Amino acid sequence: MLPDHVTLVDVGPRDGLQNEKEPVSAAHKIELVHRLQAAGLREIEVTSFVSPKWVPQMADNREVMDGIERRPGVRYSVLTPNLKGLDAALATRPDEIVVFGAATEAFSQRNINCSIAESFERFRPVVETAHANGIKVRGAISCALGCPYQGEVSADEVERVVRLMKDIGVDHCGVADTIGVGTPRKVQAAMERALRHYPIAEVSGHFHDTYGQALVNIHACLQMGIAIFDASVAGLGGCPYAKGATGNVATEDVLFLLNGLGIETGIDLDRLVDAAAFISGVLGRKPVSRTGNALLAKRAG
Ligand SMILES: CC(C)(COP(=O)([O-])OP(=O)([O-])OC[C@H]1O[C@@H](n2cnc3c(N)ncnc32)[C@H](O)[C@@H]1OP(=O)([O-])[O-])[C@@H](O)C(=O)NCCC(=O)NCCSC(=O)C[C@@](C)(O)CC(=O)[O-]
Where are the bilayer-spanning segments (predicted)? Predict the structure, then answer.
């Protein structure tokens, strides 16, 4: 049975914009967050507290977090790879923080400059400190369906990292297809490993649409009862450490699917398309979203 309600986490302001070569102003990022919450998004990944040398686009993290007019009922999350990032993030009152590990050693090294074991030594005090401050911790497992350096990734490798997340007290397990190579059976096998250690309400999917498989993978997760997905308005994005990776699945496309299935999200498609048009205008290109472009063309007559 499919779930009645799905939560979409819009990661556009963070995952979507982190790889943009031209600087996007803090004011535009803040406006994007405002438009997303006006469309009904209740979970927004706003920014990351990572090294500005590694990801310059997120260097304005504090300005962006401080500039948002917060709405009750909306959860604002930020990425923190280590205690330095968490300390800086705490000053901006995030509702949730995200630690991001990888299913493969090669990607862990390229993305956060350490081994998987070292990454968890860094995450452990981050989780403890976040919890001591009453903040929930989401974990993301990159390259759970394939790695740009290693290639195939097995379900055993995914489960190893799921266990590490559970061992250090991470509250939620996000399974991420960083390079978009997953297909439904493989996705279900990876999700099944996450579900051995986390309740279904604390497992989510994060799909990049590089090979056009994201929606079918989300449908495969829905069939398992999974009801939380990351998506990125206008299909923004691409990971700086995964060559050729395109954006996350577009939030508009996921919403169109969910609306068609009669699954409740609380999100207004027209206002979401407005948000997609806004940020695409800022970036000077069309949304990478079938639904967004179709509705914009319809509006234009
Ligand atoms: C993790 C580090 C920081 C380790 O980087 P490092 O060089 O190993 O760290 P370090 O502790 O040796 O410090 C080196 C320098 O970085 C500074 N530093 C150290 N930590 C921080 C911090 N938190 N904030 C700001 N500055 C920091 C530190 O102060 C020092 O500055 P310096 O003395 O040279 O001037 C680095 O590798 C990094 O920032 N990597 C970027 C990771 C990233 O943002 N990747 C993209 C997001 S993950 C993703 O997109 C995947 C996901 C989640 O969406 C799911 C999916 O699709 O797969």
Answer: none
Q: Is the CB of 55 under 6 A from ligand 1?
A: yes
Other Cβ atoms less than 10 A from the Cβ of 254: the count is: 25
What ipTM does the predicted assembly reach? 0.98
User: Which residue type is seen at 156?
Assistant: D
Mean residue pLDDT of the chain comes to 96
249 is a domain residue? yes
113 lines ligand 1 (CB under 6 A): yes
Testing ligand 1's pocket by substitution, the residue of 19, 46, 47, 51 carrying the most ligand atoms inside 8 A of its CB is: 51
Q: Can you give the CATH number for the domain in which 265 is found? A: 3.20.20.70
Q: Is residue 101 a part of any domain in this protein?
A: yes
pTM over 0.90: yes
Measure Cα distances from 269 to 50, 221, 279 in Å.
Answer: 32, 22, 15
- HSE, CB side, 13 Å, CA atoms: give it for residue 266: 14
- Asked if the structure places residue 1 within a domain, the reply is no
Domains held by the chain: number: 1
CA of 145 to the centre of ligand 1 (A): 23
115 lines ligand 1 (CB under 6 A): no
pLDDT tens for each residue of 65-96:
999 999 999 999 999 999 999 999 999 999 99
- Report if residue 116 sits inside a domain: yes
